[in-house]
């Protein structure tokens, strides 16, 4: 059974909301914190509802709408989201007031909007969708678990069209705290030079990407979502390599069948080592594209990676800004997306042109 | 009542609405009025507490008090003890 | 794909007991867990009764064999997950392909809210280890690492239905041959964040809550964790499973962010979907573990949906939240264990403090603990903010 990617939508630090050729005018930054390029959200959400929504809710709703529009679907059978951090902004607002006002005279709006299922719930509310609705909040697996849940339900036959997506936002508080953990570069770097950076640390990013998945294809469909797999805390690189071999085998292919490797390199020399090892062992001559210099590092960044990989298949070309190594063949039939988040959460998505 | 309108707009994040565009007797909760909902009612209860030191213990009193800006103002005048 | 999924065991820690036998004893003795706050520091300490787990973090850490300074959410999770595994009859965890799927809503918020005061005063203030496990997923990993589970770890957060959705995802992982065993359920500790949040909604009762009573005025928060051990058909053949997870469904009310629709659309769809999957007729259900929070809105919506689906044959039903309080992300897991055990032991749980018939409904909850029932099918409901409605059906065979 094939599962088709019938529509996609993406809000990111690149101009991804407006359509047009992939990364035709890439945005280059020189900072350690990238913010989304926000479209006018009022085109999808009316004024009465938008007044309560934080950025992550708006970007999630917008990306969801974009993906449904391209798929030509008004009402999916299920909505499944992944978010590691959830609604950080409203969480911060409520916590701050709770501390400053000593638990007195608090208001409900920020609390209600702070729950991790706010985006999935808001999409259901706006679409009037009574179907299955779920939210995964498992760090670097949040988005991948949402995809896997969607695949399992589509295979079960209880749904024909599923909206699945991943999103995370940065707030001032979250950035201050995460910076103290030492995961970002100490000084601003040019994003187009990030992946050749000689030291540790990466740049922070945010965004939302949604996918309208279906068991039948739509007129503009370019790829099938062939498989998704996760690997938690591998003991060494050999385990990652073995996992990829098994994953490809489960889907009846070998490294030779992969036309393009898309990796989650983030410019941290220690973390990128794993991609080097995997490429050297399994894909030494393969073309490789990367995406975190475009969207920044965040736990659901693989959603941006998948959005980009699908667009590459649709356009049958790798945009200059995304190339990390080599030249992709003329016909890009299969893409393996390999991402890891902080070395603990490794994920693999296989896309096939259709 | 102008102050109260500004406070309502601030509390409910209704920045698209001009204070003078809210009629004194315009219904706050019906679709023809401002179209507020039950979450807004809870926000307005906190507004009364913060700005007028009036505590409403039972949220079911909300709909009666929050019919319009005028009914809110009347309730405040009748119940206000100390202006915060 | 059509492989059956069984419940091989379960574990619970809650305001009425530190393990399953202690919880059952509290039901039998009609001893609900609500009291004034003993462990959560809050200005509302004497205003709102809560059902706390009756142990401080040092005691819980000892039981969990984990460090005392980690989130209470993880400590509770570890204790219940280990009890669940030990009750299943499975041997060393490393012998199986195991998944851990846990729901929670607060993550490490109990530590984050302690951190935040110092942090607001100074961006370099507050000890970082207090926020190291803030994320919901981090709580799951602390426990998975301790148990030695690596094949599949996942966390679900759909407000009050998180734990129930964890069972659904876990069952699908088994049916799709990704793992053979899943510890599935949920955990949540009490925090000032949730207590104050529910207080802003004005749905906390200042008295012990009265679910499905006409005079009900709100819910009491609780805390705890509950997990079942889901196993594949082939593993179940080597064990004495409690019962089978025969049906489940998740629907969205799509009505309001926090309130249920007056006719309980989402509730009805979830219950109907779960029955359809199990192939069970409404009149075959012997007991319903209600969501039954005790708020005006929930109980009337849930009741109306039950009326629509079950009339005129109403099964026995009760809200065990009248004992445990509303444990949010844990409730679906805790109540799944109670429901599975209801089948195994023939138990109907009591609904404490029920006195006044709801005028909207033609049925009322069970008020006494009783055993010896031949329950073939039991339903468990979990409904949450964001319109998330989930229903599970457990069957004897």
UniProtKB/TrEMBL annotation, chain B:
Domain called Carrier: residue spans = 1-80
PROSITE patterns in alphabetical order = CARRIER (PS50075)
Please report a single Pfam family linked to this protein.
Answer: PP-binding
Q: What is this protein called?
A: Acyl carrier protein
């Amino acid at each position: 059974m094939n599962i088709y990617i019938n529509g996609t939508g993406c809000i990111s630090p690149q101009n991804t909301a407006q359509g047009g050729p992939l990364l035709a005018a890439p945005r280059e930054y020189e900072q350690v914190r990238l913010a989304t390029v926000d479209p006018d959200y009022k085109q999808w959400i009316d004024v009465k509802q938008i007044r309560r929504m934080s950025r992550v809710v708006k970007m999630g709703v917008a990306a969801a709408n974009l993906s449904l529009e391209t798929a030509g679907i008004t009402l999916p059978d299920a909505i499944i989201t992944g978010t590691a951090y959830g609604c950080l902004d409203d969480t911060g607002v409520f916590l701050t007031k709770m501390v400053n006002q000593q638990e007195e005279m608090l208001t409900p709006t920020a609390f209600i909007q702070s729950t991790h299922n706010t985006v999935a719930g808001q999409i259901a509310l706006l679409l009037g969708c009574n179907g299955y609705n779920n939210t995964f909040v498992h760090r670097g697996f949040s988005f991948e678990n949402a995809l896997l849940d969607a695949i399992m339900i589509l295979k079960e036959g209880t749904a024909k069209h599923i909206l699945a997506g991943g999103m995370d936002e940065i707030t001032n508080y979250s950035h201050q705290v995460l910076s103290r953990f030492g995961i970002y570069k100490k000084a601003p770097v040019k994003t187009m030079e990030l992946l050749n950076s000689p030291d540790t640390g990466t740049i922070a990013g945010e965004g939302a990407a949604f996918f309208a998945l279906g068991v039948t294809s739509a007129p503009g469909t370019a790829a099938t979502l062939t498989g998704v797999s996760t690997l938690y805390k591998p003991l060494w690189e050999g385990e990652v390599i073995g996992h990829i071999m098994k994953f490809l085998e489960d889907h009846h292919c070998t490294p030779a069948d992969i036309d393009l490797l898309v990796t989650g390199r983030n410019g941290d020399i220690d973390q990128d080592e794993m991609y080097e090892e995997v490429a050297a062992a399994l894909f030494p001559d393969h073309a490789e594209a990367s995406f975190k210099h475009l969207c920044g590092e965040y736990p659901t960044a693989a959603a941006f990676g998948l959005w980009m990989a699908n667009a590459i298949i649709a356009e049958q070309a790798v945009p200059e800004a995304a190339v990390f190594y080599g030249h992709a063949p003329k016909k890009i039939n299969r893409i393996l997306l390999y991402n890891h988040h902080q070395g603990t959460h490794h994920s693999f998505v296989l896309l096939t042109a259709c | 009542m102008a102050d109260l309108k500004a406070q309502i707009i601030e509390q409910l994040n209704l920045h698209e609405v001009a204070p003078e565009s809210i009629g004194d007797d315009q219904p706050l909760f019906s679709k023809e009025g401002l179209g507020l909902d039950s979450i807004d009612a809870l926000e307005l209860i906190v507004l009364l507490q913060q700005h007028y030191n009036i505590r409403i213990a039972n949220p079911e009193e909300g709909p009666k008090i929050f019919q319009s800006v005028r009914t809110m103002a009347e309730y405040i005048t009748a119940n206000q003890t100390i202006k915060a | 794909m059509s492989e059956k999924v069984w419940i091989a065991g379960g574990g619970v820690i809650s305001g009425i007991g530190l393990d399953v036998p202690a919880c059952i004893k509290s039901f039998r003795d009609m001893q609900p867990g609500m009291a004034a706050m003993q462990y959560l520091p809050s200005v509302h300490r004497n205003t709102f009764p809560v059902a706390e787990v009756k142990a401080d973090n040092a005691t819980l850490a000892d039981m969990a064999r984990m460090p005392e300074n980690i989130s209470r959410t993880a400590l509770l999770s570890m204790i219940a997950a280990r009890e669940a595994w030990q009750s299943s009859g499975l041997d060393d965890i490393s012998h199986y392909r195991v998944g851990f799927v846990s729901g929670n809503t607060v993550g490490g918020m109990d530590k984050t809210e302690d951190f935040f005061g110092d942090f607001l005063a100074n961006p370099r203030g507050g000890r970082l280890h207090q926020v190291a496990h803030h994320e919901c997923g981090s709580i799951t990993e602390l426990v998975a690492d301790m148990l030695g589970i690596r094949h599949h770890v996942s966390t679900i957060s759909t407000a009050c239905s998180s734990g129930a959705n964890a069972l659904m995802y876990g069952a699908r992982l088994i049916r799709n041959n990704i793992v053979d065993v899943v510890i599935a359920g949920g955990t949540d500790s009490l925090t000032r964040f949730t207590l104050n949040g529910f207080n802003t909604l004005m749905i906390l009762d200042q008295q012990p809550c009265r679910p499905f009573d006409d005079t009900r005025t709100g819910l009491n928060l609780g805390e705890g964790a509950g997990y079942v051990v889901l196993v594949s058909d082939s593993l179940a053949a080597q064990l004495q499973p409690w019962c089978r997870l025969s049906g489940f469904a998740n629907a969205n009310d799509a009505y309001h962010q926090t309130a249920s629709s007056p006719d309980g659309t989402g509730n009805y769809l979830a219950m109907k979907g779960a029955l359809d999957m199990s192939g069970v007729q409404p009149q075959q259900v012997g007991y319903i573990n209600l969501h039954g929070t005790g708020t005006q809105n929930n109980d009337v919506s849930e009741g109306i949906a039950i009326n629509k689906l079950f009339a005129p044959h109403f099964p026995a039903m009760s809200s065990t939240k009248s004992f445990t309080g509303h444990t949010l992300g844990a409730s679906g897991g805790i109540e799944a264990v109670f429901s599975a055990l209801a089948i195994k032991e023939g138990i109907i749980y009591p609904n404490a403090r029920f006195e006044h018939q709801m005028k909207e409904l033609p049925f009322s909850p069970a008020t006494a603990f009783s055993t010896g029932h031949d329950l073939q099918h039991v339903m468990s409901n979990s409904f949450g903010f964001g319109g998330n409605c989930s229903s599970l059906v457990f069957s004897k065979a």
